[in-house]
Amino acid sequence: MSIQRIQQVLILAALTLGIGVAVFHALSxxxxxxxxxxxxxxxxxxxxxxxxxYPPDFNLPLRGGENFRLAEHIGKKVVILNFFATWCGPxxxxxxxxxxxxxxxxxxxxxxxxxxxxxxxxxVDAFWNEWKLTFSVGIxxxxxxxxxxxxxxxxxxxxxxxxxxxxxxxxGGIANADVVFDPLTQVDFDLLKQGLGISRVDYEKGxxxxxxxxxxxxxxxxxKAESEVKLxxxxxxxxxxxxxPSCGNSLYTCNCGLCNSVKERLDKLSITxxxxxxxxxxxxMEAPPP
Length: 290
Known about the structure:
This protein is of the alpha/beta class. Helix content is 49%, strand content 13%.
């Protein structure tokens, strides 16, 4: 069966599932690197998972000698947490933006905190001095706080609003702090100045009652693994040969809506001794080819 014929059938399948526009767009240019697609999708899922959640409380010794407790500031200030590493290029690039934003809003109820993930104090101090940063910083020894927030990539920035909930969970560098933060902070600043922020009691109650996003992720991953279609024999070989028209990965390894739907259908078919064209027609057409 020709590549052109396979492509035509896959496009028709995509249209049948209601996602033809996306597939036509994907086929009109070289597919992106699979790793890049996977990373962007993962970052988007993680950001959405934390949106509107109460942030985990924590204690953090600061390099200035004080102790920071998140719960003491919730509802009193907009809190921006920035998880970083001194060796991280994007972390270095965004530091001037964070510093400028903190200085610009020093008269507003804003607290910015740098959280270095488990590096040596001398490295963190040198980094802070090099970039002439004036907001507070602490070292997350053994990455305990990063684990609470599910942080796996740097930088990761978390913005907590006046209602005590996370309104921004951004993985990756911030090129323009005004553009990213202002739509989320301006109203909150005014409300906080009026004393309308969430109380510590309500924050701690909400935190206690919610399911941790980290636990949600673990539960989702477990359920996903249990529900995944396990193909064998000819069906597995077929799925490994076919390519997703969007990302270019094999049908078997891709987990987009189209590929998952195809695998579910494929699992119910008997395809022994059938050509790829016959299988494709059975998957997507009402009758097999003559």
